[in-house]
C-alpha cells in the first residue's frame, strides 16, 4: 500500500505538465490569435480586405528573411547581415537599370532577368562570404555577420553616395523594363509575392524534412561534433544555410525596390531583428537543432501583424522597436521553459516505464 500511495499522486502532476507543454508548443498560434483579436478591437478597419492584403505583403517579406534565418539558427549560427543585404541588392539592381555596367569606354546593359539574377547571386555570394569566414577562419557567426552587416551597408551607400535611385522603370533599348512587375504583378488576383511565399515555404519545408542536407542541418545544430564524427560535412552544411539566407535577403531587396520603383541604401535597417523574432517566436531554438518552417511563417505573421497594428494605432516607431525587443526576449524565455519541460517529461516517462 505504501508503494501505491507513493505512485498515485504523480499522475495528476504528469497530466498538468503535459498540458503546459502543449501550451508551450502552441504558443505561436496563441500569440497570433491574441494580436489579431486585440488589433481587431483596437484599430478601425484592421481586418478590411485592403489592409489585410497590405499586411500579407509585409508578412511575406519578413517571412522570406525568417525562413533563411531559421536554417541558420537551426545549424547553430546567426545572420545579422540580412538587412544590409536587402539594401545592397536593391541598390545594385537600381544602378544596373539606370546606368548599366561601365567598362572602360563602353557600357554593358543587362536585361531585367539578368539584373535580377545578378542581384540574387550577389546575395548568395554575401552568404557564401559569411560561411567562409565562419567555417575556414573560425570567426564566430555573430562577429562575422556583424562585420558583413557594415560592409554591405557601406557598399550600398558608396554605390550612389547615399542617394536614392529613382524611376526604375527601365530602358526599352536595354530590355530592362518590367522591373516594377516583380512587386506589383498579381496572378489570379493574388500578389506575386504571396505566390513566391507559398513556393519558397513549401520548398524550404521539403528541404528540411525530406532531403539529406536538411537532416544534416538539424544534426549540425543539435551536436556539431557528433555530426562530424557521423560523416556529415559540417562546413558544407554551414555554407549552404548562409547562402540560402543571403539569397532570400537579396530577393526581399529586389521586391521592395520594385514595389517602390526606387532603391535606397538604407532599406532593410533592423530587418534582421524581425527575422530573428519571427524564427524564435515560431519555435526555433537559439541553441540550434530545433525549428520548423511552418512555425516560422506563423511567427512572421505575428510580427507583421504586430508591426502594422501598432502603426495603425499611431504608436511611435521607437516604442515599436522596444516592443519587438520584448517579444524576442519573451520568445527565448518561453523556449527555454519549453526545453526544461520537455526534459522533465522525458524523465517522468522513463521513470514510469522503469
TrEMBL record:
Its main location: membrane. Keywords: Cell inner membrane, Cell membrane, Membrane, Transmembrane, Transmembrane helix, Transport. It is found in: Cell membrane. The chain crosses the membrane at residues 20-42, 54-74, 81-101, 107-127, 139-159, 188-209, 239-257, 293-311. It is a multi-pass membrane protein. InterPro entries: ABC_transp_permease. Pfam families: BPD_transp_2. It comes from the Bacteria. This is ABC transporter permease. It comes from Pelomonas dachongensis.
Amino acid at each position: 500500500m505504501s508503494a501505491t500511495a507513493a505512485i498515485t499522486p504523480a499522475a495528476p502532476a504528469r497530466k498538468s505538465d503535459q498540458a503546459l507543454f502543449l501550451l508551450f508548443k502552441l504558443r505561436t498560434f496563441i500569440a497570433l490569435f491574441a494580436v489579431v483579436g486585440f488589433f481587431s478591437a483596437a484599430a478601425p478597419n484592421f481586418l478590411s480586405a485592403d489592409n489585410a492584403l497590405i499586411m500579407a505583403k509585409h508578412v511575406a517579406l519578413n517571412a522570406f528573411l525568417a525562413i533563411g534565418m531559421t536554417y541558420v539558427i537551426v545549424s547553430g549560427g546567426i545572420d545579422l547581415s540580412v538587412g544590409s543585404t536587402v539594401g545592397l541588392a536593391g541598390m545594385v539592381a537600381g544602378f544596373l537599370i539606370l546606368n548599366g555596367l561601365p567598362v572602360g569606354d563602353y557600357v554593358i546593359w543587362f536585361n531585367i532577368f539578368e539584373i535580377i539574377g545578378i542581384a540574387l547571386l550577389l546575395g548568395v555570394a554575401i552568404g557564401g562570404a559569411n560561411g567562409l569566414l565562419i567555417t575556414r577562419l573560425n570567426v564566430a557567426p555573430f562577429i562575422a555577420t556583424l562585420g558583413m552587416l557594415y560592409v554591405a551597408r557601406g557598399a550600398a551607400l558608396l554605390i550612389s553616395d547615399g542617394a536614392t535611385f529613382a524611376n526604375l522603370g527601365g530602358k526599352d533599348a536595354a530590355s530592362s523594363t518590367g522591373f516594377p512587375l516583380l512587386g506589383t504583378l498579381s496572378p489570379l488576383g493574388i500578389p506575386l509575392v504571396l505566390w513566391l511565399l507559398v513556393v519558397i515555404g513549401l520548398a524550404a519545408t521539403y528541404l528540411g524534412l525530406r532531403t539529406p542536407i536538411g537532416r544534416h542541418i538539424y544534426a549540425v545544430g543539435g551536436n556539431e561534433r557528433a555530426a562530424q564524427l557521423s560523416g556529415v560535412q559540417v562546413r558544407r552544411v554551414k555554407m549552404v544555410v548562409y547562402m540560402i539566407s543571403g539569397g532570400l535577403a537579396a530577393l526581399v531587396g529586389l521586391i521592395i525596390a520594385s514595389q517602390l520603383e526606387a532603391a535606397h541604401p538604407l532599406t532593410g535597417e533592423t530587418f534582421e531583428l524581425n527575422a530573428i523574432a519571427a524564427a524564435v517566436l515560431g519555435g526555433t531554438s537559439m541553441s540550434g537543432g530545433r525549428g520548423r518552417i511552418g512555425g516560422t511563417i506563423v511567427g512572421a505573421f505575428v510580427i507583421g501583424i504586430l508591426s502594422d497594428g501598432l502603426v495603425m494605432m499611431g504608436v511611435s516607431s521607437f516604442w515599436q522597436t522596444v516592443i519587438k525587443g520584448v517579444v524576442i526576449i519573451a520568445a527565448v524565455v518561453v523556449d527555454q521553459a519549453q526545453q526544461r519541460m520537455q526534459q522533465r517529461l522525458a524523465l517522468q516517462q522513463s521513470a514510469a516505464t522503469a
